[in-house]
Amino acid sequence: MRKRILVNGAGGFIGGHLVKRLKTEGNWVRAVDLKRHEFAEPPADEFIVGDLRDQQVARGAVEGIDEVYQLAADMGGAGYLFTGAHDAAVLHNSATINLNTLEFGHQAGVKKFFYSSSACIYPEHNQTDPDNPKCSEDSAYPAAPDSEYGWEKLFSERLYLAYQRNYGTQVRIARFHNIFGPEGTWTGGKEKAPAAVCRKVSEARDGGSIEVWGDGRQTRSFLYIDECIEGIRRLMESDFMGPVNIGSEEMVSINRLAEMVMEIAGKKLSIHHIEGPLGVRGRNSDNRLIQSRLGWAPMYSLRQGLEKTYRWIATQTELTSTKTA
């Protein structure tokens, strides 16, 4: 049966890709965001440019909708989330969006909600060892995220679960681990590590250098966007509500990430380490639960995803330099 689906945050990276997938499956899709997509107009049947903090916008967005994918949030990379300068906005904006979407969606009879949470909800004290971080779903409590962004995500997880308990609302919750790929933010301060590194390598001359925050030994795992969309859809179509990690278990240091991008670009560059916001020392997706419940595991290697992402960002940097020349 053709579903009427709402994607909040469709002007963003993951939301834009999700709209494409939902349309290929034959669904009717309404998209909502503060802005149009910067790089590729999602093929939605209806695109509302509006602020989901506004109750009227949120109420109108859920009218006549069967399922909601709630990806709208005030977010960015470490340079935006971990300085402390945006904490009040991050908490207020994202919480308001979730409160509005869930309450008005419930009133409108929406059958099912997907909520995009984050690996940032995991306790900071479990991620001090870069080689052995603990990010299993059951390790979220006692709660001690390292940022207000993580605290808001954890609050909203509980909000969705409370609506399920009290009102029978169907919810599905995923904790994303560093999603990357083409058509995402790659400059301006809100970009994440893979995009930032790809941009720096693309802009650098062979034999030059790039800057990396900290000593570069901090570790992360990164999941290519196509894998993320597949995980979302499998979770939404299952009878498992989560929360569940959607990420890769291929953990690398930021130094190694930079080296991989240099290899893809065919450039020999040195790394200049500078001070900057870092987040936790180590983080890696624990995929045991999603493998057992949904039979899902990523197929792309990190290098395969980086090859596609680097080519796209290199093209963007060339276009930008041409416009400013």
Can you offer a commentary on this structure?
40% of the residues lie in helices and 17% in strands. The model has no long low-confidence stretch (mean pLDDT 95). It has 2 domains: 4-179 and 222-246, Rossmann fold, CATH 3.40.50; 185-221 and 250-281 and 301-324, UDP-galactose 4-epimerase, domain 1 (Alpha-Beta Complex), CATH 3.90.25. It contains 10 helices and 13 strands. Strand 1 (4-8), helix 1 and strand 2 form a beta-alpha-beta unit. A 7-stranded parallel beta sheet has the order 3-2-1-4-5-6-11, with helices on both faces. The protein has a two-stranded parallel sheet with strand order 7-10. Helix 6 packs across helix 10.
What is the radius of gyration?
A: 19 Å
Average pLDDT level? 95
Number of helices: 10
How many β-strands, per DSSP? Answer: 13
Q: What is the topology, as strand order, of the major beta sheet?
A: 3-2-1-4-5-6-11
Largest β-sheet summary: 7 strands, parallel
CATH A-level architecture of the largest domain: 3-Layer(aba) Sandwich
Number of domains: 2
CATH fold name of the largest domain: Rossmann fold
CATH class of the largest domain: Alpha Beta
Fraction in helix = 40-55%
* Class derived from helix and strand content: alpha/beta
Hey, roughly how much beta strand do the residues contain?
A: 15-25%
Question: CA-to-CA gap between the ends?
Answer: 52 Å
| Fourth-level CATH superfamily of the largest domain | NAD(P)-binding Rossmann-like Domain
Low-confidence stretches: none
Along the chain, the helix and strand elements come as EHEEHEHHEHEEHEEEHEEHEHH
